[in-house]
Design brief:
The protein has 234 residues and is α/β, with parallel strands linked by helices. It contains seven helices and seven strands. The chain is globular.
Length: 234
């Protein structure tokens, strides 16, 4: 069993997920990460698993392994996601289903299994990553924005269900990042996107980790069901 606090981060092999995982590593946590491919993070306190969060059986088995190895889970960050950009009239049902499976159902499954561990402790912090795309209503974002809106509403319900037990659930809503999050957006779409920001620059990993640190803190026990926007005023 582990005495150090344990943080779970999905989609930790690159980008925002990797930055969050490294933040927790550098702040004394044991970190369990996952993605659909290997990770190059080299740290004694980091464990990586190949997990597709859209596959409920894989999520359940992964969480059982975490519980057996560490006996605790203090923070769960649901970062894994896929970006899609296509006009609604050209978007297939398969694309919508794949987007929802990873972005929403993956968050749902990991949060549910993490909460089962946290309930036994009567403590835990769940942080779900969303996107300001759910607020912008931009052409081409139908599937992606819907999946991230689902994450927001699910997180608010989960906050109400888990609050009496001492577990918080919050949402961090991200703009475009400086770590290659533009996906399939063209330059014109990116410019329109960035003009909607209150602060006219892309967010950095430090910007994100600053908020993650606040939400993950034991001192943030009364902060739950909140959606924190980075650089954007809804």
């Amino acid at each position: 069993m582990t005495d150090s606090p344990v943080a779970l981060v999905t989609g930790s092999s690159r980008g925002v997920g990797r930055g969050i995982a490294e933040y927790f590593i550098n702040h004394g946590y044991r970190v369990v990460g996952c993605s659909r491919g290997p990770s190059s993070i080299q740290a004694a306190c980091y464990e990586h698993s190949i997990v597709d969060v859209g596959n409920d059986d894989q999520v359940r088995k992964w969480m059982i392994g975490i519980t057996n190895s560490h006996g605790r889970l203090d923070v769960a960050v649901n970062n894994a996601g896929v970006g899609t950009a296509a006009l609604a009239l050209t978007t297939t049902n398969d694309l919508v289903e794949n987007t929802m499976r990873t972005n929403y159902l993956g968050t749902f499954s990991v949060s549910r299994e993490a909460a089962k561990v946290m309930i036994k402790q009567k403590y835990g912090r769940i942080i779900n990553i969303s996107s300001i795309a759910s607020e912008l209503h931009m052409p081409g974002s139908a599937a992606y924005a819907a999946s991230k809106s689902a994450v927001v509403e699910f997180s608010k319900v989960l906050a109400m269900e888990l609050g009496p037990i001492g577990i918080t659930c919050n949402v961090l809503s991200l703009p475009l990042m400086d770590v290659g999050m533009s996906g399939e957006l063209n330059e014109e779409a990116i410019e329109r996107y960035e003009r909607r920001l209150a602060i006219g620059r892309r967010a950095t990993i430090n910007d994100v980790c600053n908020v993650v640190s606040f939400l993950a803190s034991p001192d943030s026990g009364l902060v739950t069901g909140q959606v924190i926007q980075i650089g954007f005023v809804p």
